[in-house]
Amino acid sequence: MILTDEFKINKTENLESSYIEKELSKFDIIPLRWAIVDVTDTQYILTVSYEKI
To answer: How is residue 26 annotated by DSSP?
Structure first.
């Protein structure tokens, strides 16, 4: 089943898609599609469509 939720990850100075995918893997999911929807002083907020491992 494919789910969609928001996830928060810590900001980094060198933002790359590989960083985001590595951080999302810590949630035990297989991300299918993601988008940054908001940015705070310390975090990126992403909407992610994924499959649960």
So the answer is: T
Give the pTM: 0.89
Neighbour-count burial of 19, counting CB atoms closer than 10 A to its CB (0-12 exposed, 13-18 middle, 19+ buried): middle
Name the token pair of 33.
């599609």
Is the Cβ–Cβ distance between 36 and 19 less than 8 Å? no
3-class secondary structure, 19: helix
Q: For residue range 12-46, what is the model confidence (pLDDT) as tens digits?
A: 999 999 999 999 999 999 999 999 999 999 999 99
